[in-house]
Structures are given as C-alpha cells and as structure tokens.
Amino acid sequence: MFTQLDDLDFADYIALLSHNHQQMQDKLEQVEKTAAETGLSINHNKTKVLKSNTKSKASLMVNIQALEEVESFTYLGSVVDNLGGSDKDVKIRIGKVRTALNIMGRILNIRLPEKISKKDLWEKTNQSPVDEELKKRKWLWIGHTLRKPKTNIIRQALQWNPQGTCSRGRPRHTWRRNVAAEMEKEGYKWHDLERLAKNRT
After folding, report:
1. What is the DSSP code (8-state) at residue 76?
2. Closest CA to 43 of 31, 25, 52, 58
3. Angstrom distance (rounded) from CA 93 to CA 59
4. Which pLDDT value is given to residue 1?
5. How far is Cα of residue 155 from the mean position of the Cα atoms in its chain?
6. Mind listing the pLDDT tens digit for each residue in 59-81?
7. Taking the model in full, what pTM does it have?
8. Rounded CA separation 32/186 (Å)
9. Which residues of 121-134 are buried (b: 16+ CB within 10 A; e: fewer)?
10. Can you give the residue ranges of the Reverse transcriptase domain (predicted)?
C-alpha cells in the first residue's frame, strides 16, 4: 500500500510536492497565509521551483513575484534534480570525499611522488573506508525506519510512490533501486527486512 507525500518539513526548511501547477500555487498561498499569522514570511530569494516531467511554463508566484526555476537544489545536504535520480548527488559526495582525502594527505605530509594506499591512509587517520561507512549507515537507517509504525511519515517516505510518467529508456538509478539491487543480491525482499527489523534483539 503506497502513500502519497505532499511535503517534506524540517525546522524552517520546507519542500512542497505537487502533481500540477495550480495545486502547487495553492500550497504556496496556504503556507504564505499560515506563516503571516505567526509573523513569518516566505523568503522569495531563497525559494526555488523545480519541475519534472512537465511542459508547463507558468511561473509560481509568492507575494506577486515569480519564483526562480532551477534544475537542481540542495535539501538537507542532498542534491535533488529534475531527472529524479541520485547520480548528481553521488558525484558531488564523491568529490567531497576526494577533497577530504587530499587534505588528509597534506596533514600527514604526504607529497608527490610519494604514494600511500587508501587502506594505509584510513588506518593512519583512524577512519573507516567511505563505502563501508555509507553501507553501514544505510542499513542501520533502514532497520530503524522499518521498526517505526506504518503511519509514521518516515516509514511512508521509504515506500513513497511518486506520480507522473516516466521517460523512455532504462530507469534512472535511484537510492531505492540501489537498495533493491543489494537486497536481491543477498536473497532478501522488503518483507524479509521488515521481519528482521522487528526481530532485532
């Protein structure tokens, strides 16, 4: 049973989700009205619009001003783009890791042509390999989420069924498809994970 999400909220970071232009405009006006009742307002310069799988060219308005349309934006540290995949976010994260590795090399006074393996670098800096740490955190989060009641918004987000038509060709790489591929490799399905999460001691 899939659940439709209408918005994502964290503190004053709000991401509104809609299927069409009018629905989004109505949501913006409702947020603007509710915010005004508490002495707050929508920051026009910080509010962005991202459209996906639509031909609509109509602008969304806040306080009689058109909002800027973008092809991607960062929400709570993750890059969201109009293609709906995770490729751009992954590339940016890889770039950050490379930068961190270069800085570690400078701190340890490692200079070219001197070379050091990544394994030795992790050991000297007392750090875990990035891929291992990411995998560990991912599965811990999935287990934690699956133990929540089905009415919990985070649990619903994990099984969210986005609406809209898909473009031709191979489906884009997404976080959920990545998880599904790893589960299949290990011989698990979602109901197996739910059972394991509930039986955790």
Report:
1. T
2. 31
3. 32
4. 43
5. 15
6. 998 888 899 888 888 888 888 88
7. 0.54
8. 48
9. bbeeeeeeebeeee
10. 1-80
Tally the C-alpha atoms within 13 A of residue 188's C-alpha that lie toward its C-beta: 15
- Token readout for 117 is 């393996």
Q: Which residues of the chain have pLDDT under 70?
A: 1-4, 85, 111-114, 159-173, 201
Residue type, 163: Q
Report pLDDT for 27. Answer: 92
Torsion from C-alpha of 10, 14, 20, 25, nearest 10 degrees: 150
Please tell me what DSSP assigns to residue 173: P
The phi and psi torsions of 82 (rounded to 5 degrees) equal: -75, 0
- Here the tokens at position 36 are 């005004």
**How far is 158 from 179, CA to CA, in rounded Å?**
11
Dihedral sign, CA of 189, 190, 196, 200?
positive
Phi, psi of 47 (to 5 degrees): -90, 125
Helices and strands (H and E) in the chain: how many: 7, 8
CA distance 8 to 30: 15
The residue assigned the tokens 């473009």 is 167
| Domain range annotation of the chain | 1-82, 84-127, 129-201
